[in-house]
Amino acid sequence: MLPTDVLNTLRALSLNERPLITPLPDKDTSGKGAFEVGQKVQGTIQAQVSTGVFKVRVLEQMLHMQLPENLKSGDVVELQVLSIQPRLTFSLSALSNPLSAPEHLSNTSLLLSALTQKPLEKSYVMAIQSKPLITEHVESKTAPDTTVLAGKLHESLSQSGLFYESHQAQWIAGSRSTAQLLQEPQNQVPLPDRTVAEIAKNAVSATATSQDNPISNIPNQLQPLVQQQLNALETRQVFWQGHAWPNQRMDWEIHEEGSRQDTSGYEEAGKQWATQVRLDLPNLGEVAAMLRFNSNGLSITLDASGETTRALLGSASSQLTAALAERGITVSSTLVAPHGKS
Q: What pLDDT does residue 44 have?
């Protein structure tokens, strides 16, 4: 199921899609009452000033507000303070007279409610292509090119569709090309083979269907992806699964962490991003690398199930630190630990 917190937030944003209210205070009452951001207050309609504009008493202040036209004196509105500076701004939460302006859920809210009824079928973002990320080293029987592998990983996650909306914003700003945007799953859905007349003919029935089942507006193959987007927004975690090279599966996780102590006992302040890669290699067994990034630099934890493998990782860790330093990356700590102790 989708996380409750993110759904409640999105429902609140999409409910009724009402405009924000930025009132103007009367001169003789300005300055009375103290508002705080997030505060919920009641306003009582005193009189109608003009069409859709009312004089409303809120916390001993008399404010002019643009509200639904069919309100009348004595009606009560529930408001929430969104901002104080540079100007006082409210959102309209509810009305005491539901007949004045009936509450209804927008299509966005109906869609989110429908998604809550569906279990999260896939917790992992799968590689957009089933083939391995790199294959060049197989024929030459050389070690994989880690630079190429890193680039392919970045490309696979970027084109997963998980960040599609932010990529649309980049496209509008000119920092992302149309060709890049077209690589993402949202643009891989085949369009129905119908004429304009057929689409127009079915428009009314399609609208009725979407109201009964708004999730039907999302193609079946994209519904798990939408759930993954909401889940990532709530949990601050992204999981990727795929094959790094032929017959070599890899699990990749990116998540946000709170404060923690490093190997010297120093507590790292604030939040930090961590990334972990897990592989089950033919000769080394199961190994994992955890990288944590913060203002102090990069901390590295390598773990393995076998003692021999841990010894190899320990002897090679100094080379890894030196290689990163050559690229301007400061390594604050390194640790080799038994599997499951990182």
A: 92
Give the Cα separation of 55 and 43 in Å (integer). Answer: 10
The whole-number pLDDT of residue 207 equals 43
**What pTM did the predictor assign?**
0.58
Q: Give the β-pairing of 297-304 and 331-338.
A: parallel
Residue with tokens 């959102």, as numbered in its chain:
91
Residue 38 has which token pair?
Answer: 């997030």
Q: How many CA atoms, within 13 angstroms, populate the side-chain half-sphere of residue 238?
A: 19
Cα dihedral 278, 281, 287, 292 sign: negative
Residues 181/174, Cβ–Cβ less than 8 Å: no
User: What CA–CA distance (Å, rounded) separates 202 from 200?
Assistant: 5
Q: Cβ(79)–Cβ(90) under 8 Å?
A: yes
Angle between helices 107-116 and 223-235 (to 10 degrees): 90
Query: Helix, strand, or coil here: 273?
Result: strand
CB 259 within 8 A of CB 293: no
Query: Which stretches of the chain score pLDDT less than 50?
Result: 1-19, 28-32, 98-105, 194-203, 205-210
Q: Tell me the CA distances in angstroms from 61 to 43, 75, 87, 96, one per residue in order.
A: 10, 16, 15, 20
3-state secondary structure of 147: helix
- In single-letter form, the type of residue at position 17 comes to E
Alpha-carbon span 268 to 291, nearest angstrom: 14
Query: What is the length of the chain?
Result: 342
The Cα–Cα gap between 303 and 222 comes to 36
**Which residue ranges form the domains of the chain, and what is each CATH number?**
17-26+33-95 (2.40.50)
